[in-house]
Automatic annotation (TrEMBL), chains A, B:
Residues in Xylose isomerase-like TIM barrel domain copies: 28-269
Keyword annotations from UniProtKB, A to Z: Isomerase
Keyword Glycoprotein attributed: no
PANTHER family: HYDROXYPYRUVATE ISOMERASE, XYLOSE ISOMERASE
Keyword Zinc in annotation: no
InterPro entries tied to this protein: IolE/XylAMocC-like (IPR050312), Xyl_isomerase-like_sf (IPR036237), Xyl_isomerase-like_TIM-brl (IPR013022)
Organism: Paraburkholderia susongensis
Protein name, UniProt field: Sugar phosphate isomerase/epimerase
GO molecular function annotation: isomerase activity
Length: 283, 283
């Protein structure tokens, strides 16, 4: 396992970690100034700014874009809406290419409003990814399927385990072209009894495109916005990174913390300082 | 699939559905008066009362005890505590026998306070179940392992999928004695991509000991106490019961709703009336 001590260049910050309180360009400057090697920006931030200028700034600061967050949800109640979702993702993939992103983070989307058809929504996700794969190749930006914790199956992602994401990868990209893989986020998959097997299998196929860290708090008070800082929760982060790196992952370690009542209220530079400490001690 | 219309004798109520606001004997009377065929009481209610008298009341009302809720959590920080947990479960199994319960519902327990050793906690669960199996046989009460939703992995149950529970059953009870199986609760497992396969496999082995219904609300506001009434959420309950019955389950359909802000505030007889309606229309 790599030693992260003194190696913040191997670490990245997802901008959601600050709660989107300032313009993206300020956040990018902060992250670079603190010595991190990478950044993962969000579409609503990039789309509010000028993508070419953001790309130029990131390049000048020599930051890696570990991932571009994130896809428009795929499942839709109507075919027209499904097509619109695909088109929005194609446009985002072109921006991801401009940014030089290592991957486009795919959060599948939940059940269409009013639907109880889980397998239908899952089929739509698979169809949507199949349609996007060609654009991903054209843009030179791999699709990273991010299985979300099962508590988001209704409203955010019907893709809920690494095994499920890898089944889609194998079905749609049997040749392992490098343009379809997974994002492993400890928050979403730390509980999974099949996790070790899935990580090994993803690694063997060269499909681990991103690795996200934070922590699961024992007393989680909110389903979405109560993630913990690394070390404050129950996840054995060192063991997790060891698995991912043993499986061949050599990319950056990205911090992504949604925390409305705690980290999003703190000074961004303080958050960065603590992220740096924890990355070098408990991750 | 069985038709539940006019067949409330095939339906049971878990007493947690009322929020434990009145003595158990009143709740049992209400459930019987409303025409249900079964009840699933909780230990803290039974232990506050007299177990022999409760058993007598239930028998006089001709109610089936679909399950006795629930096990003392197994994983512990010390061996002495683990032994105490086993002993508490053995005592509860004897009460389950007195009540004539169809099964003893096993909620595994989460990580011991301060621990990040998920696989260690899972090993303790397996060891604990192995120790309890003999008592279960002696008492004539099967152990029903209830995998809990992954959002409870830290604090309530490190047993999180049916597949994981079935692996334990197969390892500890290869002879399929009838004393080790699973409780299938739609709230905990509706999202599972392997659900159909796991239900079929559980059914083939004769291991489905209980079937619990409620609903997953799209806008869930609390991790523990915001379950929905059947029909108010996203679960395809008819399809779910069809799978379970196709796999051979012929026991009662038990309603279990934790709902602090909604159903626990309503009049218990109103809750029972709506449970009856929904069981006969959407389940």
């Amino acid at each position: 396992m790599r030693n992260l001590k003194g190696k913040l260049d191997l670490c990245a910050i997802n901008t959601a970690t600050f709660g989107h309180r300032e313009p993206l360009s300020c956040t990018i400057d902060r992250i670079a100034r603190a010595g991190f090697g990478g950044v993962a920006p969000w579409r609503h931030e990039v789309e509010k700014a000028n993508v070419a200028e953001i790309a130029k700034q990131i390049k000048a600061l020599d930051l890696t874009v570990t991932g571009y967050c994130r896809s428009t949800y795929l499942p839709a109640a109507t075919h027209a809406q499904f097509v619109a979702n695909i088109d929005a993702n194609k446009a985002a993939l072109r921006d991801a290419a401009t940014l030089g992103a290592r991957c486009f983070v795919m959060v599948a989307g939940g059940l269409p409003e009013g639907s109880r058809d889980l397998s239908g929504a899952r089929a739509q996700v698979r169809d949507g990814i199949a349609e996007l794969l060609e654009t991903a190749r054209d843009c030179g930006v791999p699709l990273a399927l991010e299985p979300l914790h099962p508590m988001y199956a209704a409203d955010r992602a019907v893709l809920n385990t690494l095994a499920q994401a890898l089944d889609i990868c194998d079905a749609l990209d049997p040749g392992r072209t490098g343009f379809l893989g997974v994002a492993v986020d400890v928050y979403h998959c730390w509980w999974d009894p099949a996790l070790q097997a899935s990580i090994a299998s993803a690694g063997n196929a060269g499909r681990i495109l991103a690795y996200h860290v934070c922590d699961w708090l024992r007393e989680t008070r909110d389903l979405l916005l109560d993630r913990g800082m690394m070390g404050d929760g129950v996840v054995d982060l060192a063991a997790m990174r060891e698995s991912v790196e043993r499986a061949g992952y050599d990319g950056l370690v990205e911090v992504e913390i949604f925390s409305k009542e705690n980290w999003w209220r703190r000074d961004p530079d303080e958050v960065l300082r603590i992220c740096a400490e924890r990355l070098q001690s408990v991750c």
